[in-house]
Design a protein that fits this description.
Layout: H1 2-20, H2 25-28, H3 31-48, H4 51-66, H5 72-92, H6 98-102, H7 108-111, H8 114-117, H9 120-135, H10 140-188, H11 195-249, H12 254-263, H13 273-284
Helix pairs in contact: 3-10, 4-10, 5-11, 5-12, 5-13, 9-11, 10-11, 11-12
């Protein structure tokens, strides 16, 4: 939603400013220029990107308009899920969560938090880590390095769509120049025409450059940055799981391990200590 609002503001500001200077709006309407720039940009994207990455880019692009940013409630649910797992392990032993870890979709513990259950990265991080602890004698510092490697891999995977979209954005001004040059070539073919016709033709050619720059800096480039922010936010979310898991496996009590997780939550989304306390009391009822 916020992306749509941003696009509307950019459009209103540019077109509104143009109209304030008594610009002729019909001159800016050049479908052929849009076809040249947009079609060439999509073609360049297909040339430069494997099919798997294209699917990822489409998913990330759609996510710009549909996904909601993480908030305090999301982080609180993550802490409560971990708290439930930690207390069960502490009271009944590590083996008691084996069925939860093997089939989280059938676990009553995981099913309390359906949003987390839909996040394969978070679920994979929790279940794979606990499964590793059950089946090996891995040291906490080795486990931390292993989780760091996994999170780094997730980041690379999530940041690639952003890099590719930014690459396309960087090429849009150049494609705008291509459209402008084609317009100038067409104008040369009308060199014997009246000045009004030549002026209109040159104006249409310049619109190509205008569109290329506007799409780059006003729309596509910011969308690439938005994807980057989303990837960074997802990594911060996974860091909460990592901090709590490492603390618990290192010997901390469940409540202390949860506090380790709470401390790495970004400040604008971090639930207060009292909020976590209240949520823990509610979970015990």
């Amino acid at each position: 939603m916020i992306v749509i609002i941003g696009c509307v503001i950019v459009t209103v500001a540019v077109i509104g400013g143009y109209l304030m200077e008594h610009g002729n709006l019909s001159v800016l309407f050049q479908p052929a220029e849009l076809v040249i720039i947009g079609g060439a940009a999509v073609g360049a994207l297909i040339i430069a990107t494997p099919m798997k990455m294209l699917k990822s880019i489409i998913g990330s692009f759609l996510g710009l308009f549909t996904a909601k940013a993480r908030g305090t409630v999301d982080y609180l649910e993550a802490l409560m899920l971990l708290n439930g797992l930690f207390y069960k392990i502490r009271q009944e032993g590590l083996v008691s969560v084996e069925s939860d870890v093997d089939q989280p979709e059938k676990s009553s513990l995981f099913n309390k938090y359906p949003k987390i259950l839909k996040n394969p990265r978070a679920i994979g991080l929790v279940t794979d880590t606990l499964r590793m602890v059950m089946t090996t004698t891995i040291a906490p510092h080795e486990l931390e390095a292993l989780i760091d490697t996994e999170i780094e891999g997730h980041f690379e995977e999530m940041i690639n769509p952003s890099k590719t979209v930014t690459f396309v954005a960087d090429g849009l001004p150049g494609l705008g120049i291509v459209a402008a040059v084609l317009g100038v070539v067409l104008t040369m073919g009308k060199i014997g025409s009246p000045p009004e016709v030549l002026g209109h033709s040159i104006g249409a050619a310049l619109v190509g450059t205008f569109l290329g720059v506007l799409l780059c800096y006003g729309f596509v480039g910011p969308m690439g940055r938005n994807m980057e922010h989303t990837a960074t936010e997802e990594i911060q979310y996974l860091q909460v799981y990592k901090a709590a898991l490492i603390a618990f496996i290192g010997g901390a009590a469940p409540k202390v391990a949860i506090e380790f997780g709470r401390r790495v939550i970004p400040s604008h989304d971090k639930p207060s200590f009292l909020e976590v306390e209240a949520a823990l009391r509610k979970a015990k009822r």
